[in-house]
Amino acid sequence: MENLVDIIRRMPKAELHLHIEGTFEPELMFKIAQRNHIQLKYGSVDELRKAYQFNNLQDFLDIYYEGARVLQTEEDFYDLTWAYLERAHTDGVLHTEIFFDPQTHEANGVQFKTVISGIHAALRDGYEKLGITSCLIMSFLRHLDESAAITLLNEALPYREMITAVGLDSSERGNPPEKFERVFSMAREYGFLTVAHAGEEGSAENITNTVELLKVARIDHGNSCLDDKKLVNLLVERQIPLTLCPLSNLKLKVVGQLEDHPLSKMLQLGLMVTVNSDDPAYFGGYVNENYIAIAKALNLDRNQIYKIARNSFEASFLPLSIRKKYISLLDDQFIK
Ligand code: HPA
Ligand code: ZN
Fold first, then answer.
1. Domain 4-329 - what CATH class?
2. Known catalytic residue: 25?
């Protein structure tokens, strides 16, 4: 196992499910709060960390939105994104596809331009200084109306070149994919790729509707797909990737213990699964910790780890030539 941990740490990988607001480490949150003269609810970094006791998605989201309140300037978004990129780089991440939630920041009086300019500047530096390739996925908050999502989509059009895909996150319960059929159709017409969270706290039916109605290129999470054989067949046939997040699932009690995580079964069935960190500052681990924890819990072998890392590139939105280049770097390390 020790050997496999070393392999995981150094192997090239892509991260495909990562909310930039979810990388906000308490230390940086305090620093930025001070800079912006914002009073946090908690007196210290330790107190804040202790508050990270979630039992479900909603409890987590309440704290996550509270933390995001601190982010006000372009520099704040730059610093947040840069800190993540440096960390991802040490984890062997060659490519990352990052969610951002403009509606969260607009509710705090922060303009779209401020958010995207700060994030984008850091991504450019990430490529120039660290060699990390990246793309951005603009997420709609599903607890808000579809009309708000349409307003956001129109606002994003001048920045079309900076955004690869649109996504759908926040509370799945009570906010099914049907609610966003129109805005996803508009986004596709504008040339955006689409992804959506589904089957995290929601049913297999939510996943089916996400595939059929929103015509997504990937499903974020997708844990509950195993409840429906027909859906599994469809996901396998079309090789629609699932961006799994084991430590997130554990923290939000989507699974009681990691040993019960469906990843092994999914691999066995031929589903295109990937491993990601979701909101690493809140869920106790970046991408390598997710790989290591799930490998230990499910007793994954070298071939399974290779397959998951390879899937991370196959499932990415990179051009084929770069995907091939990254996979050959992965092969170099595995064949040694
Ligand atoms: N699920 C849904 N919405 C989110 C998450 C998540 O894990 N993280 C940030 N927004
Ligand atoms: Zn997520």
1. alpha beta
2. no
